[in-house]
Amino acid sequence: MPWAVSFILGWLLFFFLVRLPLLRYTIWGGLSAALFQIINDWLMIRQDLYQIETPLVLILHSSAFFTFGIPLVMGIIFTQYLPRAKWLQGINIAVWAGFFLIMETLLHSTGVLVYRHWNPALSYFINILVLSSMTWLVGELAAQARRQNKEFSRL
Amino acid sequence: MSITTFTELSLLLALVIYLWCRLLAWWERESG
Fold first, then answer.
1. Which end of chain A has fewer CB atoms within 10 angstroms, the N or the C?
2. How many of the other CB atoms lie within 10 Å of CB of A83?
3. Burial class (CB in 10 A: 0-12, 13-18, 19+), A119
């Protein structure tokens, strides 16, 4: 049930924040985030670092409701709102890593995410690495989206 | 944690994320 709830709330937030004309640039942020998540969790779960309970629909050890929920939509939003200034990108990475950590903590508290040899500090560190990689990967796409958004704003 | 509490806290987190994104958008507009 928590996986389904997180899926619904993630998509609700997406529809409040997304600018659909920019989706052709920003969707790659979502796809890369989902790919990072599914590979990372597949490796971690195989090593018995943590386990997923009641996934509803499984995709490589992860719940499909999670992969096509939070990482996908938040990856798109992360790309769309990526700041230009490097110093602000650094703060943005730390803040988003915190958001994902809070979401993980909530899921852990419901019992659908079980830590075997894991702890939140490791999660935060991994989040920092992934979001830093994403900032580098989607930076140019985010810049194109900003230019497109400026043109739309003039209309 | 009950599913109700999880949903309420998730909604609160969603609100914080929404406000953060709006803040970033405002900053981008202000900084040109």
1. C
2. 19
3. exposed
A56 touches chain B (CB under 8 A): no
pLDDT given at position A15? 94
- Give the residue from chain A lying closest to B25, CA to CA: A81
User: What stretch of H or E contains A124?
Assistant: helix A120-154
pLDDT at site A18: 92
Looking at the predicted complex, does its ipTM rise above 0.85?
A: yes
Q: What is the pLDDT of residues A102-146, one digit of tens each?
A: 999 999 999 999 999 999 999 999 999 999 999 998 888 888 877
In this complex, which of A81, A103, A109 lies closest to B21 when CB atoms are compared? A81
